[in-house]
Fold:
Amino acid sequence: MREILFIAHRIPFPPDRGDKIRSHHVLKRLSRLAPVHVATFADDDFDIAEEVELAALASSYKLVRRIKPLVLAGVQALAGKRPVSLAAFHDHGLAQYVEHVLATRPISTIYVFSGQMGQYVPSSFKGRVVVDFVDVDSAKFEAYAKRKTGIMRWIDAREGVMLRAEETRLAGRADISLLISRQETDLFASRLPESVRAHARVEVLGNGIDGLHFDPALIVPEKRMMECEGPRLIFTGQMDYAPNIDAVLRAMDRIVPQIRREIPGTTFHVVGRNPVAQLLERHGEEGCHVWGRVDDVRPWLKAADVALVPLEIGRGVQNKVLEAMAMARPVVLTPEAATGIGARHGTHFAVGEDDADMIGAVLYLLRDQRQARSMGQAARHFILEEMSWQSALASLSEMIGWQSRAVRDAA
Structure:
């Protein structure tokens, strides 16, 4: 019997943010192929409460509460000449668990979810190594550095350089490197030295979405949001994540005020956990509402007239866009937010190159409800036809090195 070791930087439960949605569905699919042992971290009490779900799925597991202060991780990173991301996710107990599982179980494949966790794969392991980078983290930090000044610019630039070196190491170590879209695989491969690129296998493992779960016909609009009587715009996501913060501030400062001048009473709703103080301070200001964590994002999407996604830094595929499309909401977004989805501008969503484009698209959709409904329905149809998790993960069994159990049993 072959078994799998799954190493992830966050517990894949609950699937309530982009990375956890992907890891959740990958882990569920892997558990149908073979027994899976899981090494992972919990960020907060909500994650700890999901331990029962992890225990029900995994053959064994190690769940560690991540409490290391970022300052300590930074000091350790400087001392060890490695990325802060690796120091932040290093834990001796987790490393001991990995060592124990590899010594006592017939592990034939290690599936690493997120590059920070590649540090736990020992050089002595002779089985198959799959590294799911999701997107190119080093490029993300390079983009952060260009937008900052002073010490933070230096910190992010350093992280970009060191993560690129770690990505190169892992691409050379792995049997296969996975990224979320063709754009990400092309970018990742282009950043590898020729000596590594010539031998590395870099493939797409796309994201999907559960269209039956995100079905607007089954959802009642959120009452608190519906109490805002004018047109309602929405942005969803993890609200302590820098690109999301920047996108919301862009909307609050430059986009929503212009829309409200044309259509008074328009409101903008920010829905997602851990909103930073900079956003909370804006709650109630100029039609902006910052709601924080919610149990279920679907009623909030159902209550929205338009999903507004003005991301300026976007890596991979944005789950917030897929969820809004599945809920038949018209989406106005930047090219960065549209990356990797494959939908058509003007049919499935509206892409705005700049603030003026986005303002114009939102106003058009708010004023023409028939067109808004048509775009929303086209978006949902696209999701159901093209973006299911079943199709997204169809090649996973081959990628980890064997056929599914059902195929083997039928042979």
Observations:
- Confidence is low (pLDDT under 50) at residues 404-411.
- The chain has 21 helices and 13 strands.
- The longest strand covers residues 36-42.
- The radius of gyration is 22 Å.
